[in-house]
């Protein structure tokens, strides 16, 4: 390994010492700042004009993470670039060889009979990227960053064509950096991304469990969004078979980039070797490519017997036709056909990158369990209803017929004991089904909030939470609510406050976030006031207030907000403690 010059070694060590401070932000802004600092340093080292860092880890997003041109960040959030093609061009050569590559002129013809891989890739490149990033440069150096034998990232440095070419000494320097610091720095970045992924999965699964427990319609698009966010999939389809086992309707959620759409496939009978069947003859996960037999069969059904609107048919067909590589992950559990998720890409030969990372794999397993729970709750509820009607009525009719036609028979101890046992069995089955019903409860809101905040303190040790209960000796702060829906409200408020606090952390150091909750009684209601020490951030709907209003209204409450400083007030009617049981 090449020895690094002392001044460059010091700057790398100083950068490494700075990185742990950035990891405390726990959001993508810290990743962006980290990547920019690394790339700016490497650009200075070799006097490059343009630098790029690409993420190539299997099981996660495969994309360009940072592009700097002339000392300015060129790649902006939301810039509509074409999909990054890591298996093609000179990057593809680096991935296949595992070695860095120095290209003296990316536009020059190959000295051998082989075609220039960069020229072959031109038709698939984004026009803006091609004109502003590739056309001005000639000399380029691509260096892989490895974790063990796996390449998890690549760094690309280029000089304008009117400047001296990058040299072999530059390649040796970048190799030395990659070996000594590259993996450590990328591990920090991946660690932050993993924590973000964990939080995404955690929030979505908690929301899903609360909706199931609340008997509220599940927003499946929000659940399936995790598969798009936590994988390298840029297009995909999820098939969900909720409700009873006998139902032939399938819920389809498709995505293309960030756009998602939900469609109900009515009377969707399954093919003999369909991946939606829990069939022992099939081995999951199933890998495939565009236009294979499975994809052709599905497209044929779209054009045939499915009763769909033209808009829904067009969307599903377009998504399916764009698929070039895919992996099907089943949602089956305990012999229940619950559906499947197709992680796919518009990129050829991309299957290796579509593997689930550990967080998504855990999310997928838990999602299967929730779907199974939903089906079991549906079945139990249906059994309970049938036990009640016609079950009890049939048993009552049987007793009446015996009393009328054969009074001596009903007096037989064996017969009467059997009928009593049947009555007890039906009552037990009916009560078991009622156990899973959604219920409203009286909640001592002050004690409930204290317990919730104590748990939050463990999850967020870098935060301060303060609960101020006015007239704390009062024991009648009772509200009637569904606990899961109440958790959803408070969780959303805290999540929005955390975003505002993270915005402040980016601009103020050191800084400790704080959320204050004030609880008091007023005009026959319990009023909660939430306030944080964060700063405003860009929102579409003002901290998600429309969604909160709907949930709070369903619970009989009201919500209003103030600005300068931002405060959120919730009001719930007080409940007489004799009306319902307490928790």
UniProtKB/TrEMBL annotation:
Entry-linked InterPro entries: GAF-like_dom_sf, HATPase_C_sf
Taxonomy, superkingdom: Bacteria
Protein name: Histidine kinase domain-containing protein
């Amino acid at each position: 390994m090449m020895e690094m010059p002392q001044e460059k070694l010091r700057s790398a060590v100083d950068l490494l010492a700075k990185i742990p401070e950035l990891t405390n932000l726990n959001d993508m802004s810290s990743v962006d700042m980290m990547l920019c600092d690394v790339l700016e340093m490497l650009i200075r080292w070799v006097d490059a004009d343009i630098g790029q860092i690409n993420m190539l880890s299997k099981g996660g997003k495969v994309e360009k993470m940072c592009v700097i041109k002339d000392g300015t960040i060129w790649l902006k959030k939301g810039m509509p670039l074409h999909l990054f093609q890591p298996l093609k061009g000179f990057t593809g050569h680096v991935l296949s060889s595992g070695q860095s590559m120095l290209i003296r002129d990316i536009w020059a013809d190959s000295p051998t009979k082989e075609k220039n891989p960069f020229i072959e890739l031109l038709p698939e490149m984004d026009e803006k990227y091609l004109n502003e990033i590739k056309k001005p440069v000639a000399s380029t150096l691509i260096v892989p960053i490895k974790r063990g034998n796996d390449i998890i990232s690549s760094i690309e440095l280029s000089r304008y064509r009117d400047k001296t070419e990058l040299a072999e000494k530059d390649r040796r320097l970048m190799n030395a950096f990659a070996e000594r610091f590259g993996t450590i720095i990328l591990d920090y970045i991946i660690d932050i991304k993993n924590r973000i992924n964990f939080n995404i999965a955690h929030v979505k699964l908690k929301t899903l469990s609360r909706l199931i427990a609340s008997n509220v319609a599940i927003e499946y698009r929000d659940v399936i969004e995790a598969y798009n966010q936590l994988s390298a999939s840029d297009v995909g389809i999820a098939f969900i078979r909720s409700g009873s086992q006998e139902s032939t309707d399938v819920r389809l959620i498709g995505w293309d980039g960030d756009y998602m759409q939900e469609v109900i496939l009515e009377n969707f009978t399954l093919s003999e070797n369909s991946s939606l069947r829990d069939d022992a003859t099939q081995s999951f996960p199933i890998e495939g490519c565009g236009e294979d037999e499975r994809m052709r069969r599905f497209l044929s059904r779209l054009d045939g017997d499915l009763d769909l609107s033209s808009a829904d048919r067009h969307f599903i067909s377009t998504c399916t036709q764009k698929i070039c590589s895919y992996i099907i992950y089943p949602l089956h559990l305990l012999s229940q056909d619950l559906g499947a998720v197709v992680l796919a890409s518009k990129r050829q030969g991309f299957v290796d990158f579509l593997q689930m990372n550990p967080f998504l794999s855990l999310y997928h397993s838990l999602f299967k369990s929730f779907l199974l729970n939903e089906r079991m709750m549906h079945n139990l509820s249906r059994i309970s209803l049938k036990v009640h009607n016609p079950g009890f009525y049939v048993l009552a009719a049987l007793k009446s017929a015996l009393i009328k036609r054969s009074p001596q028979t009903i007096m037989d101890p064996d017969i009467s004991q059997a009928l009593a046992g049947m009555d007890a069995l039906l009552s037990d089955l009916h009560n078991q089904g009622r156990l899973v019903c959604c219920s409203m409860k009286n909640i001592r809101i002050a004690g409930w909030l204290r317990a919730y905040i104590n748990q939050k303190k463990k999850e967020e040790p870098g935060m301060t939470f303060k609960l101020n209960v006015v007239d704390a000796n009062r024991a009648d702060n009772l509200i009637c609510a569904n606990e899961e829906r109440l958790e959803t409200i408070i969780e959303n408020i805290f999540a929005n406050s955390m975003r505002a606090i993270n915005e402040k952390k980016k601009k103020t150091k050191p800084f400790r976030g704080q959320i204050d909750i004030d609880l008091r009684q007023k005009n026959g209601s319990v009023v909660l006031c939430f306030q944080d020490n964060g700063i405003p951030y860009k929102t579409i709907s003002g901290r998600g207030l429309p969604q909160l209003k709907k949930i709070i209204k369903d619970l009989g409450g009201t919500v209003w907000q103030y600005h300068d400083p931002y405060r959120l007030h919730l009001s719930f009617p007080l409940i007489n403690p004799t009306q319902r049981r307490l928790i």
